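To assess whether ligand presence alters the predicted conformation, the chain was also submitted together with adenosine-5'-diphosphate. Input:
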Amino acid sequence: MPIIQTQQLFKIYNEDTIPVYALRDLSLDFEEGEFTTIVGPSGSGKTTLLNMIGGLDTPTRGDVFIDGTNIASLRKGDLIDFRLRNIGFVFQSYNLIPVLTALENVSLIMELQNLDPKSTRERALQVLEEVGLADKLHSKPSELSGGQQQRVAVARALASRPKFVLADEPTANLDSKAAMNLLDIMAKLNEEESMTFIFSTHDQRVIERARRVVTLVDGALHEDLVKAK
Ligand code: ADP
Ligand code: ADP
């Protein structure tokens, strides 16, 4: 069974005035362990698709299934729990909490999941080390570079071992060295822990690293390319 399925997904903004078809009839399957990028011109629906898959916004028509569960069937509180347990998010704006240290930012989601404090701390330390920030545990976001903040955001997304990670232009604000570092971290987790990644990008070097490239144009599926191994 695919880990994520979208069925005839439509998202229409401003349906009552001047409708914007952000997604048109998208039916896509994503299997566990994929390393997939969503590409397409600005305004083609990439962010909207990631928001629908992540349950951050609801489709106008159509359904999203995660592990066979139709996320529209979940009540609000259950959806929040479901997201915490299953999905890691990495956004362009890192959404780190300014008053918390790197370690605290990474620990927060696990604390919300009521994991015991000892394993929370161990796991947070482990992922921060994996992303090369073992010496920045007690730094606040304002004391970190853009690339370092992005790596805290990635560590936070990975810490609770989500079933899959959704990343919206994760390298957009990074210089090319930091961007490739981030891709290396993602690829390693994909290979070693078979963590599923779906990320949008404009960056040709990032597209080259993906194993599947889904291209959207005007909200519709334009091409779905799986590269040969
Ligand atoms: P991309 O991520 O590929 O740049 P988006 O998913 O952000 O594309 O946007 C797809 C289309 O939906 C665009 O035409 C955009 O202007 C429109 N759109 C996105 N969010 C909203 C919104 N909240 N209200 C109205 N239109 C929106
Ligand atoms: P900036 O945002 O200022 O470009 P980076 O976050 O890209 O900074 O990198 C800062 C330093 O950390 C660099 O010397 C880089 O080589 C190192 N670095 C980046 N990623 C990793 C990683 N995954 N593991 C270890 N060190 C890293």
